Amino acid sequence: MTDMPAQEPGHAAWSAGGDATFRELMSLFPSGVTVVTAIDRTGVPLGLTCTSMCSVSLSPPMLLTCLHHRSSTLHAMLERGSFAVNLLHSGGQAAAEVFATADLDRFAAVRWQPTPVRGLPWLTTDAHAVAECEVAEAKAAGDHVVVFGHVDGVLTRPGSPLLYGLRSYAAWTGRDGTPTEGTAEWTPASTVSSSSAGAPLAG
Ligand SMILES: Cc1cc2nc3c(=O)[nH]c(=O)nc-3n(C[C@H](O)[C@H](O)[C@H](O)COP(=O)(O)O)c2cc1C
């Protein structure tokens, strides 16, 4: 057995539920960082930084994201029935900050191109993976909307994930963070739930 440092008893503080308590709780739960993107009905790209993304089902492959009900990206996702989830690598912190800033031309600040099948915004420099999704279901929950996405295909290349926790960004240690451009691989829907690699694509 590994020698784990024992937690000192008696230091935990009980807090009643509330906005600040909930924020504090979630800050103690680190996650990866995504930029969820969509295209509106006039062809304009939209996107926001989003950590509420998680796996839902393997067969069929599904994930979920929770977006504020006033988000313009959310409205484009629901209108067009599709969205992309860009997983940021540890060199993507500036992009995470851009996509969380209001009143900014976010797509002017990053390099992007359309994904292979659905033509959704793929952050080619800042993401080491992107998933194309079809909206399967959306459910209002408090001030957010939970959007379930059926994953159609993914583009991946080596890289280490950007993390967010304790109200700050961090890099996954032990792996080189920033991937090389031009090495992304596309895996179509039929093989998403298996681990087979797809055809190389220009990044
Ligand atoms: C690390 C981080 C994680 C975030 N996660 C979410 C999230 O899961 N859902 C959400 O609606 N907003 C999230 N936000 C906030 C949005 O990115 C931010 O409010 C953005 O400006 C919303 O853009 P929009 O108004 O164009 O939708 C997050 C922000 C940061 C910095």
From TrEMBL:
Pfam families in the record: Flavin_Reduct
Gene3D superfamilies: Electron Transport, Fmn-binding Protein, Chain A
Domain Flavin reductase like: start-end pairs: 26-171
InterPro entries, alphabetized: Flavin_Rdtase-like_dom, NADH-dep_flavin_reductase, Split_barrel_FMN-bd
Biased composition (Polar residues): 188-197
Keywords per UniProt: Oxidoreductase
Region of interest: Disordered: 177-203
SMART domains the record matches: Flavin_Reduct (SM00903)
UniProt-listed PANTHER family: FLAVIN REDUCTASE, FMN REDUCTASE (NADH) RUTF
Protein's name in the database: Flavin reductase
Species the sequence originates in: Micromonospora echinofusca
